[in-house]
Amino acid sequence: MARENYNDLQAFLAVAREGSFTKAAGKLGVSQSALSHTIRGLESRLGIRLLTRTTRSVSPTEAGERLLATIGPRFEEIEAELAALGELRDKPSGTIRITSGEHSAETILWPKLAPLLAEYPDIKVEINIDNGLTDIAANRYDAGVRLGDQVAKDMIAVRIAPDMRTSVVASPAYFARRPPPITPQELTGHDCINLRLPTLGGLYAWEFEKDGHELKVRVEGQLVFNYLQPILKAALAGFGLAFLPEDVVLTHVAEGRLVRVLEDWCPVWQGYHLYYPSRRQSSRALTLLIDTLRYRG
């Protein structure tokens, strides 16, 4: 295949993935008109339309979807191998893109990455905070962080944290107005601070477990957030009960700003794992990052 055809396929991949000629042109460093001309030329040579264009968006046709699914992984493998060859130098280098939830980014990733990046200035890390179960292959991330039981079976997973426990807390001021719940079922009569998760398409149902009996409770209250820190602040301000990771509340409990309840019902979950596609050739930088994050008990 002629060299220009490779360039045309790369242009098609960029537009199909970005869903925009403007964004793809910026990523490729070419003008929008030049990129549009390239795509029209590719479609003309193939004799089939690859992209559907509207005033608001660009999306692959059926033929475009087929081409994207076929050549996309192959171009990724080529790019990964070229990056690996480029790292046959004295120092690991390159950019590592990671998707992670808010809690794991703050408590696990950043504390361990800070000294690593100081030692290896040629390594760059991009962390995207997303509490959804992001498809790292489709979104071209090098790795992701999830709780152990959420990692897909076809991924390589490395434990980076111990098991974690949840907690239900509220401020002393709140409990001065309302009696503490004795069982999870009593939460339905309390003001609770909700968490919205994109993976559930709605509000998170609080999960409990005792003596092998699992229970989920859908709670109600004045406030809904999609991140943990605002939930913690609202609980400290007396707006209701919060369901949070234990390590987030321990200091506040020890200093009397929060009170724990339902401790015998709060489950222990598998700790965080770093995961990445099994087919991907790990770069020296990613290998070093994995070793840095690996939990050793």
UniProtKB/TrEMBL annotation:
Record carries keyword NADP: no
InterPro entries: LysR-type_TF_proteobact-type, LysR_HTH_N, LysR_subst-bd
Keyword Ion transport in record: no
PROSITE patterns: HTH_LYSR
Alphabetically ordered keywords of this record: DNA-binding, Transcription, Transcription regulation
Location of the HTH lysR-type domain: 4-61
Family: Belongs to the LysR transcriptional regulatory family.
Protein name: LysR family transcriptional regulator
Organism this protein belongs to: Geopseudomonas aromaticivorans
